[in-house]
Design goal:
With about 375 residues, this protein is mainly alpha-helical. Helices cover about 55% and strands about 5% of the residues.
């Protein structure tokens, strides 16, 4: 059994890094046959050998020897086949286990505030109307006023019982995933790679919330292909959840005297969305000319072209995550900062557990995916 666990972990980690067996053997100071026998389970390595392999791979010894819980009720789609898919799922499973462990340890669980809404929406015909209804209902059940902008999307989700995992992956193929309650969720994972605009982080979180409310029947880990209708519906949900009509229309009217570019940028900052989300909403009422109008105005103002677009209509609701040029932070004017999307619930649980001496400093570092020195610096900063 231990052989199988170690071998499966080695293969998953090696493939996620794109390494050959020969390369890992070299990194670990082993011959290729010796390493191969460990990975295939034909030989049981010494602890010192596993330590060398872990060091070569840049992982913890625990990552090689610990069994991994298999997630089944996950919605994980990507634009292309991903070598790191299994490793991401493994990391998410361990993160969920750590989160659940701390909640139980501290007797500090938050109930899922909108869980019943998904059952109600299942009886409503799929489409744009359902997405807008879901957004309006979700906001109401989360205690948001009809005209209230969401100032802290991460904090809102966590306070309503949704676990949030800001995950860093240097990839333009993955923006996020979500886990249903059947696998320890609800949980939302967002790729917060520094090259992706913070606005996209926020939109991805709202997008995954849309899937949790609208598409629970599609939460099957083996499904990897995008469903365009589901994506369309989740994007409409996200747009109206973050920027409801009752709030958007008055804010847009308030900017009446400003230049068009300034109006768009001001409204985008109010709702913490991308300028493209604002333009899409405007195009629903004013037509596709708003895209060209913004591009021309922004280039005239700055001398910079944000994106070459043959047809303004090219950005459809289902296309928010079609290309990296749509989400790069460098392509987002007046972009938000990383401090506008910060997870803090798990960090709070870790601090409470350390202060109560329920867990060690090193265990806290493991839970938060920090090295020990960084964890010590964080503890030193607590007041």
């Amino acid at each position: 059994m231990a052989f199988n666990v170690i071998g499966a972990n080695l293969r998953r980690i090696r493939e996620s890094k794109g390494f050959t067996q020969e390369h890992v053997a070299t990194l670990s100071g082993l011959s290729r046959p010796a390493y191969r026998n460990i990975e295939t389970g034909d030989s049981m390595p010494k602890v010192s050998t596993l330590q060398n392999i872990a060091a070569g791979l840049g992982v913890r010894l625990e990552d090689l020897v610990s069994p991994v819980r298999t997630l089944e009720h996950v919605r994980f789609r990507a634009l292309k086949r991903m070598k790191s898919r299994d490793q991401i799922l493994t990391d998410v499973a361990r993160w969920l286990e750590d989160f659940d462990y701390l909640e139980d340890l501290l007797d500090d669980k938050i109930s899922y505030k909108v869980g019943g809404l998904a059952r109600q929406l299942a009886a409503v015909p799929q489409g744009a109307s359902r997405a807008r209804q879901a957004a309006q209902s979700a906001r109401k059940e989360m205690g948001l006023a009809p005209k209230e902008p969401i100032r802290d999307t991460a904090g809102l989700l966590e306070s309503r019982g949704i676990k949030l995992y800001p995950f860093i992956l240097a990839s333009d193929d993955f923006f996020g995933l979500s886990v249903s309650t059947q696998d320890g969720g609800p949980a939302i994972v967002v790729n917060v790679w520094e090259r992706i605009a913070v606005e996209r982080w926020i939109f991805s979180a709202a997008h995954e919330l849309g899937h949790l409310l609208l598409h629970l029947e599609a939460y099957q880990v083996d499904e990897t292909q995008e469903d365009e209708e589901h994506e369309h519906e989740a994007n409409i949900f996200a747009s109206h959840f973050l920027m409801p009509d009752d709030a958007f229309e008055p804010e847009w009217s308030e900017t009446y005297g400003l230049a068009f570019v300034d109006r768009v940028l001001k409204v985008k900052r109010i709702f913490q969305v991308s300028y493209k989300t604002v333009l899409y909403r405007l195009s629903e009422g004013y037509g596709s000319s708003v895209w060209e109008r913004f591009q021309v105005g922004f280039k005239s103002r700055t001398g910079r072209t944000l994106r070459v677009m043959d047809e303004p209509e090219a950005l459809l609701p289902c296309s928010f995550h079609q290309s990296m040029s749509e989400v790069l932070r460098s392509q987002e004017p007046d972009s938000l900062s990383a401090s506008d999307f910060v997870e803090d619930r798990l960090s709070k649980l870790v601090r409470l557990a350390i202060e109560r001496e329920d867990i060690t400093l090193s265990r806290g570092a493991e839970v938060l995916r920090l090295d020990l020195d960084t964890m010590r610096d964080r503890v030193a900063s607590w007041e």
